[in-house]
Design brief:
The protein is of the alpha/beta class and about 350 residues long. It has 2 domains: about 1-145 and about 325-350, Medium-chain alcohol dehydrogenases, catalytic domain (Quinone Oxidoreductase, Chain A, domain 1, Alpha-Beta Complex), CATH 3.90.180.10; about 150-295, Rossmann fold. It is about 25% helix and about 25% strand.
């Protein structure tokens, strides 16, 4: 079968035929319908993500962790034609969090992630999957269900935010967050999914980037009644909640002292390519204002299931704007070129498997 293959940590990507010897062991056969491309995939292709590795016994890795698939051969819980999305991370099997199904909080670091480290991914015509790691999604998500993996990360981060903010009375007098302002740094797919989810919770949302928005970004931001700020114009931002999806310290550190009292900061993006420091005065401000700062990565199966429900809600609420997050669909043979470099104006590019 055809698959999109990389050889981490080497640079490069190719489409080739593979014949994986994978034991069935009660696994379900899935036909891949859509594969999403993200910064992690491109980091692996470029050789910059040095933690990526093939499975034991292989000198290559099948890429792909953002997936929409269709069941071919099921069991009593998954029937043929069911639409499914696989969970990305698989636990170490030894720490308590992994044993309890929260491998997104693995304590040992000895986990695997499909298409990223130690486990083949789903950028291939079909794959076998353990039903424990499958989430069934409704047919209404047939065109956009590939967005569930990134959205599950958003759901996890916002669940964490609500958990830590129970330290104080932070919701508004209508029980929502309508009196709170969230600033989302970055207008890529994660940034826009964060923005949609935060608007759904009632936040006033400002999407910020160091450049003007693309036409599609502006359409989405306007459509969800948020606003866009070009930070190169030095606009003052004073959020209750700051979400950084850029991974650039120079983007979020200057805003930290401006976060309102009892506020929260979610660090989501990573780059590993920049140094930018805090001053002692900045630290004093954060301490005196009770600011919570936490990093968030990956998602549990529960986050995926909650994300599926949220995606249905967002599709009903914002309709075509959700579809517009997928700005390009390409065939398998085109995929390597697009994985090497972003398409101009891209939010999310997906591969359509025939």
């Amino acid at each position: 079968m055809k698959a999109i293959v990389v050889r981490p940590p080497q640079e490069g990507v190719e489409v080739r035929d593979v014949n994986l010897e994978e034991p069935n062991n009660g696994k379900i056969l899935i036909r891949t319908k859509l594969s999403g491309m993200c910064g992690t995939d491109r980091g692996i292709v470029s050789g910059k993500l040095t933690f990526s590795r093939p499975p034991d016994g292989y000198d290559y890795l099948v890429l792909g962790h953002e997936t929409l698939g269709e069941v071919v051969e099921g069991n009593e819980h998954f029937k043929p034609k069911d639409l499914v999305v696989p969970v990305v991370r698989r636990g170490c099997g030894t720490c308590l969090n992994c044993k309890m199904g929260r491998q997104d909080f693995c304590e040992t670091g000895n986990f695997t992630e499909i298409g990223i480290r130690g486990a083949h991914g789903t950028m291939r015509e079909e794959f076998l999957e353990d039903p424990r790691y499958l989430v069934r999604i409704p047919s209404v998500l047939r065109d956009v269900g590939v967005l569930l993996e990134p959205l599950s990360n958003v759901v996890k981060a916002l669940n964490e935010m609500e958990a830590v903010q129970r330290r104080t009375w932070w919701s508004c007098d209508d029980s929502t967050y309508s009196c709170r302002t969230a600033v989302v740094l970055g207008s890529g797919p994660i940034g826009l999914l964060f923005s949609m989810a935060l608007r759904n919770l009632g936040f006033e949302v400002i999407v910020a980037n160091k450049r003007p928005p693309s036409p599609v970004e502006m359409e989405v931001v306007n459509g969800i009644n948020a606003s866009f700020v070009n930070t190169s114009e030095h606009k003052e931002l004073k959020p209750d909640l700051l979400v950084d999806t850029s991974g650039h310290p120079s983007a979020f550190i200057p805003i930290l002292p401006k976060v309102k009292k009892n506020g929260a900061v979610i660090l989501f993006g990573t780059t590993g390519q920049e140094n930018y420091g805090l001053t002692a005065e900045d630290v004093t401000t954060l301490v005196e204002n009770n600011i919570i700062i936490f990093g968030s990565v990956n998602a549990s199966k529960l986050d995926f299931e909650m994300g599926a429900n949220l995606l249905v809600t967002l599709l009903g609420k914002y309709g075509e704007l959700v579809n517009k997050l997928i700005t390009k669909r390409v065939g398998v043979e085109e995929a390597p070129e697009v994985l090497r470099r972003k398409v101009p104006g891209e939010i999310k590019t997906v591969i359509e498997w025939k």
